[in-house]
Amino acid sequence: EENTSNLNEVTSQTESAIQAVLNGQRWVDLPPASSAIRRIPHEMARQAELTSHSYGKEPHRRVRIFRE
Questions:
Q1: What is the pLDDT along the chain (68 residues), one digit of tens a residue?
Q2: How many Cα neighbours within 13 Å face the side chain of 67?
Q3: According to DSSP H, which parts of 1-68 are helical?
Q4: Quick check: pTM over 0.85?
Q5: Other CB atoms within 10 Å distance of the CB of residue 37
Q6: Under a CB-based contact definition with an 8 Å cutoff, are residues 44 and 7 in contact?
Q7: 18, 24, 27, 53 from 38: Cα distances, Å
Q8: Is there a contact between 8 and 53 (Cβ–Cβ < 8 Å)?
């Protein structure tokens, strides 16, 4: 069960990651997260016109956000 503070944290971590990549960082890895949570950064990255991929094995799978 994902709680609201968890979602807020993921959203703010993702916003920071997107900003860092837009500011020239090559990529940012987010902390490991469940597939339900990983949908959030994937969607946010897409809206920011960035690319995101999940990698690693569950339960340590994480999202990396980067430019094409």
A1: 557 888 899 999 999 999 999 999 999 999 999 999 999 999 999 999 999 999 999 999 999 999 98
A2: 8
A3: 4-22, 35-47
A4: yes
A5: 17
A6: no
A7: 14, 23, 16, 10
A8: no
